[in-house]
Design a protein that fits this description.
The chain has helices spanning 8-18, 22-33, 38-45, 49-61, 81-106; strands at 36-37, 65-70, 73-78, 114-115, 118-119. The chain is of the alpha+beta class. A 3-stranded antiparallel β-sheet has the order 1-3-2. It has a two-stranded antiparallel sheet with strand order 4-5. A hairpin with a 2-residue loop joins strand 4 and strand 5. The longest helix is centred in the last third of the chain and has 26 residues, at 81-106. It is extended, with a radius of gyration of 21 Å. It starts with 7 loop residues before the first helix and ends with a strand.
């Protein structure tokens, strides 16, 4: 729920708290591809049906997903393609962070002419 009287930074913090669960991120990734039913998501998310329903409810209350009933089945979809864009940007940021950490682990580059700690 959005309270327009809150400062924007608090609203952003609440938004990112909503994204702060691995199952919710996985659901949003799946829905970035196409609409899914709960039965389609269960094996992909890897949690119990009741827990998945709870996570979907949180995402619905936050306005990130919609649900459409078709007979006995309920299909879920993203409310906006911008959610998929956000996940893509997060992936790019994390890719850069991981690459930077890998560089730190490798250490500084060896000076030219030095092989295995000795000069030629």
């Amino acid at each position: 729920m959005v309270n327009s009287r809150q400062p924007l930074y608090r609203m952003k913090a609440d938004f990112f708290k909503t994204l702060g669960h691995p199952a919710r991120i996985r659901v949003l990734e799946l829905l970035s591809e196409r609409e899914h039913t709960v039965s389609e998501m269960l094996p992909e998310v890897g949690i119990e049906p009741a827990n998945l329903s709870q996570q979907l409810s949180i995402l619905r209350r936050a306005g990130l997903v919609t649900a459409t009933r078709e007979g006995l089945s309920v299909s879920y979809a993203l409310t906006s393609p911008r959610v998929a864009d956000l996940l893509k940007v997060a992936r790019e940021i994390l890719g850069g962070v991981v690459a930077g950490q890998a560089e730190l682990l490798e250490g500084p580059p060896e000076p030219a002419g030095v092989v295995g700690g000795s000069t030629r």
